[in-house]
Amino acid sequence: MNDLIKQDINFLDKPIWFQNIRSDGIGFVWTDIEGYEYRSGYFPPDKVDIMILLFLLMKSQKAGYANTLSLSRYEVLKKCGMSPNNIYYKRLEDSLKRWKNVSIEFHGTFYDGKEYSTIGFGILDDYKIDKFTKLITTKFNENWLLKIKESNFFKYVNFEYYKALKRSLSRRLFEILCKTFKGRDEWSIGLVKLGIKLTLSGRTVTTKEGEKQVMYASDVLVAVKPAINEINRLSKQKDTIERMGIHPDDLFTVNHTITGKGQERVIHFKKIPVGVSVPANAKKASNRRQPVPSAEQAVLDKIPPSARESAKMALKKRGIEETQEIVGYVDAQIQKGNVKDVAAYLATCFSKGYGAKTTAERTAEQEREARITELRREADQLEKGAEAETQQLKDTVARQNVLLAALTPEQDAELSRLAEQNIEAAGDYEKKRYRLQKKAGETTMLDRYKRGLVEEFAATA
After folding, report:
1. Which pLDDT does position 133 carry in this prediction?
2. How far apart are CA 6 and CA 149, in angstroms?
3. Judging by beta carbons within 10 Å of its beta carbon (0-12, 13-18, 19+), is residue 27 exposed, middle or buried?
4. Which of 148, 177, 150 has its CA nearest to residue 162?
5. Going along 4-87, which residue ranges are E strands?
6. Alpha-carbon separation of residue 286 from 238, 281, 283, 387 (angstroms)
7. Do the strands 136-140 and 4-8 form a parallel or antiparallel pair, or are they unpaired?
8. What angle do CA 366, 368, 372 make, to 5 degrees?
9. Bridge partners for 186 per DSSP
């Protein structure tokens, strides 16, 4: 319960941060047809910034909705899953600047659970970083914080679960689903409209009136599937409940279906709770210890009643291992259709020892099983080694992605300059490929070189 954040539904339904938005850092405006207006006088907040804001909001709520907070940069970055280094220190300062420059307005669309109203406010009024101690002091917008505190139309969001969602689209979809699944388990929306709510960028299309952004249903569907998969995968992880302190009834997975064609396609979501309530009487029944049959009794249970006396004698004379071998041998003969009177045949086999393995056969079988076990162990080690290498690569890429996302615009420009220098020094073939990509507006090669430089760049920035 310690990492739960109370959030007003309106701030989950409408975006207060964005993904993959190109901005000049001077001014940014985003509106929807329902009357929501978002303005920023700087770069709009992204998935890094929302983590920082949610942590500050959580600290405020733990302190009785304190309007002003004083925290160390180290604490903020560590709790948000970021490395306390110079890049992230600068990114933290940049984040505070982004939130200070945000204002939001609901034109007749702010819902308090009873009625709609028109309202507007900022999110962060002020921030300060002490020159000597480097402590950061933040002051929330009083009206924004009060709306959350007094909200009767809210949802609790688990900070650790939200942080564990690595895709920015997964986080935004999770916000929308939290709002949507409040009081219901099914929801349908047009894919184009969903793309707008997710703040996806449309394609640039040239028309008679000029260039315009068009949201394609097919693009939204391609983008949203990995987000659904990540939410489902995280909710199903066995350690999620214990590690994050989440009650299983608060976790859910999502099924989805698509109907319609072209731009009219609709996606239908269905909430599937992860926690399953067990009836009290079922729990009591499961807690009663059931008697475990002995190995001898397990053998006898497989044998017809008319042959059990001879089986008991065999168990006493030959032991459990030989008796099991004889029963297995008889069962194989029955499957082949070679046995007419099962009880009589069992009695004969128990008496004569038919089907029991010789010492040499048993030794050979044990050696064979030991060899199979060893081969399986070696195969598991090879597989784990391959998985470790794959995971190491994934961890490296994930670490590089986080560092790239944390760059300020100025740092990103400097890293791009260094990457271009390396491309120029790589030879004529690489230079030619890069120039062709650059001319076509592609960034694949530049991104690859930036990824290779970002860790060293972060360490020296």
Report:
1. 86
2. 8
3. exposed
4. 177
5. 4-8, 28-31, 36-40, 68-71
6. 21, 9, 5, 37
7. unpaired
8. 115
9. 270
- Contact (CB, 8 A) for 192 and 220: yes
Minimal CA–CA distance to 26: which of 9, 39, 10?
39
Domains and CATH numbers, the chain: 1-164 (1.10.10), 166-277 (1.10.10), 295-360 (no CATH), 392-461 (no CATH)
pLDDT digits (tens, 9 = 90+) for 184-206: 889 999 999 999 999 998 888 88
**Percent of the chain whose pLDDT exceeds 90:** 37
Flag whether pLDDT at 362 surpasses 60.
yes
Instruction: Tell me the sheet residues that pair with 136.
Output: 71, 129
Helical H runs in 204-307? 217-236, 240-244, 280-287, 295-301
Tokens for 156?
């609790």
395: number of CA atoms within 13 Å, CB side? 6
Q: What angle do CA 457, 47, 196 make, to 5 degrees?
A: 135
End-to-end, the C-alpha distance of the chain in Å comes to: 38
Q: In the chain, how many H helices and how many E strands?
A: 18, 14
CB neighbours of 414 closer than 8 A, spacing ≥ 6? 457
Closest CA to 234 of 186, 288, 173, 293: 173
> Given phi > 0 = left and psi -120 to 50 = alpha, else beta, which region is 152?
alpha
Cβ neighbours of residue 265 under 8 Å, at least 6 residues apart? 190, 191, 217, 221, 258, 259
Q: Which helix (H) or strand (E) holds 128?
A: strand 124-129
388: Cβ contacts below 8 Å, ≥ 6 apart: none
How many whole angstroms from its chain centre is CA 377?
31
* CA distance readout (Å), 229 to 85, 243, 263, 306: 32, 20, 23, 57
Q: Is the pTM of this model over 0.85?
A: no
Measuring CA to CA, which residue among 313, 366, 373, 337 is closest to residue 326?
313
Torsion from C-alpha of 431, 435, 436, 442, nearest 10 degrees: 110
Q: What is the 3-state secondary structure (H, E, C) of 363-429?
A: HHHHHHHHHHHHHHHHHHHHHHHHHHHHHHHHHHHHHHHHHHHHCCHHHHHHHHHHHHHHHHCCCHH
